[in-house]
Write a structure and sequence with these properties.
Layout lengths: L7 H9 L5 H19 L2 E4 L1 H16 L11 E5 L26 H8 L3 E6 L33 H8 L5 E6 L5 H7 L2 E4 L19 E6 L2 H11 L29 E5 L10 H16 L3 E5 L4 H19 L18 H12 L2 H13 L5 H22 L5 E5 L15 H5 L6 H6 L3 E8 L5 E7 L5 H15 L12
Parallel strand pairs: 2-3, 2-4, 7-8, 7-9
Antiparallel strand pairs: 1-3, 4-6, 5-6, 5-10, 9-11, 10-11
């Protein structure tokens, strides 16, 4: 059996039934990553020794007939803004180049309890600020389906790792589309959970009212499995819901018969929407209709205001969150100055890249005296209107279907000179973060160049299980499940 083409569910079952050892599974994925990561650039750091030690421990427990977790022996890749002691935590930034955290992220702890095996840390746009992973200060990450194209961002390394067969599962973070957009561009499942469903303890903060941790997978079932592991209460995150999460696998096979799926007319009328993307998404919606879903038209009229609202709220929060990187506490420290103000200034000048600096300056500006009311407070009011838009839409529909991204993966350098064009890559994903509702990207086809296209399904807040049920129903009829990019030389 080709171990790197198995789903997480298949791996866990095979390991528990002793059809294959956890060590064999890990070795196969490490070998594939060792061969192809120099080209793809998904991983920043691989800890092969620790991964093998964890796998051996799982095998030993199974041999002693001791119980093991739901993800026993399943390799997982971690976006490098999640804390795992002993491994670097860089956020793909020079300012954290040599930092190793002394604590463990909540989601990492939960996956350890599930007996998952961590392979290493994946590349991202610096501090998760970007839509192509071109803003990484460390290296370039390529799309496994076409290495001349970007993998999306900011979680491009995690998406590429799953699409390339380096790991069946990965974690990323989503502040404005940073899981769903790269999932769409790389042809895998990517989910942003409801705000408050998954603890963010141990996630390096970008926009604290927007950030969510979520999974990448090659099947909806696998996404549901890892959601079972990472969801639930955590007293260390005050925004986390204090009630148990549902079993996300329980209703996956119930289909969509009787569900109302809303089509927001504004999302299909934007001038930047690629014709092939539009056609693939509408075909996917039609497939759901044939499975018994009812299609209804809804309005999300605030779409045009989502991007400017996001880039006021998110940059304001980034300005505040990134103030801690000053050279005095941890991370990079500039040399050659004893003046504290000069130290802060020089450290941040040397340590931050251009996109991070741009967002810090924007955020500082909108929070400054004289502009706070004009920009930040007005943005918060518009954010409330966006949330009300979704509430009204969900009064008519159980779920909302839309594109994930306006186009398929673009070529390197195509948008770097035009920040606005890059920001508009997330036009269909940003609103869900502002409204705190969940959304998932599931593959729904390819364009004429063979590049993946994603369908976005959105649910009311904490309706994540219903959303995954609909995604699984579409996945079943489409056959677009567990696809691994055919890398050169296999």
């Amino acid at each position: 059996m080709e171990l790197t083409s198995l789903t997480a569910a298949e791996i866990a079952a095979a390991v528990k039934n002793k059809k294959v050892s956890a060590r064999e599974v890990v070795d196969a994925h490490l070998a594939r990553a060792e061969k192809h990561n120099p080209v793809i650039g998904a991983f920043l750091h691989i800890d092969a020794a620790e991964a093998r030690a964890t796998a051996d421990a799982v095998d030993a427990r199974i041999s002693r007939k001791e119980p093991v977790g739901a993800l026993a022996g399943v390799p997982v890749a971690l976006k490098d803004n999640l804390a795992l002691p002993g491994q670097p935590l860089t956020c793909s930034s020079k300012i954290l180049k040599n930092f190793k955290p002394p604590f463990t992220a909540h989601v990492v702890e939960q996956l350890q309890k599930a007996d998952a095996v961590f392979l290493g840390k994946t590349n991202l746009d610096e501090f998760a600020m970007g839509s192509s992973t071109e803003n990484s200060a460390m290296q370039l990450t390529r799309n496994p389906w076409n290495t001349d194209c970007v993998p999306g961002g900011s979680s491009g390394g995690s998406a590429a790792a799953v699409a390339a067969g380096f790991a069946p599962l990965a974690l990323g973070s989503d502040t404005g589309g940073s899981i769903r957009q790269p999932a769409s561009l790389c042809g895998c499942v990517g989910m942003k959970p409801s705000y408050g469903l998954v603890s963010r303890y141990g996630l390096v903060a970008f926009g604290s009212s927007l950030d969510q941790i979520g999974p990448f997978a090659r099947s909806v079932e696998d996404a549901a499995l890892i959601m079972n592991a990472i969801s639930g209460p955590d007293r260390r995150d005050s925004t986390c819901r204090n009630t148990p999460a549902p079993d996300f696998t329980a209703n996956l096979n119930q289909g969509v018969k009787g569900l109302k799926i809303g089509l927001p007319k504004e999302y299909f009328e934007t001038s930047g929407l690629n014709a092939e993307v539009k056609a693939a998404v509408l075909a996917a919606v039609d497939a759901l209709k044939k499975e018994g879903a009812e299609l209804v038209e809804v309005s999300l009229s605030m779409l045009d205001y989502a991007v400017p609202t996001y880039y006021i709220v998110a940059t304001a929060e980034a300005s505040s969150n990134l103030a801690r990187y000053d050279g005095a506490h941890y991370g990079h420290r500039a040399e050659g100055t004893d003046n504290i103000i000069d130290l802060f200034s020089k450290t941040r000048e040397e340590g931050f890249g251009s996109e991070v600096k741009r967002r810090i300056m924007l955020g500082t500006y909108v929070l400054s005296a004289g502009y706070y009311d004009a920009y930040y407070l007005r943005a918060l009011k518009v954010r409330t209107r966006i949330a009300q838009d979704f509430a009204q839409a969900f009064g008519k529909a159980d779920l909302i279907a839309s594109p994930v991204a306006p186009e398929t993966a673009f070529r390197f350098g195509e948008k770097t000179a035009d920040p606005i064009s890059m920001y508009l890559s997330d036009i269909y994903t940003i609103s869900t973060n502002l409204a705190a509702v969940p959304a998932v990207s599931v593959p729904c086809g390819v364009d004429s160049q063979g590049m993946p296209i994603g369908l976005q399904l959105t649910a009311p807040r904490f309706g994540d299980d219903l959303m995954l049920r609909a995604a699984a129903a579409y996945e079943q009829v489409s056959g677009l499940r567990n696809r691994v990019a055919p890398l050169q030389g296999n």
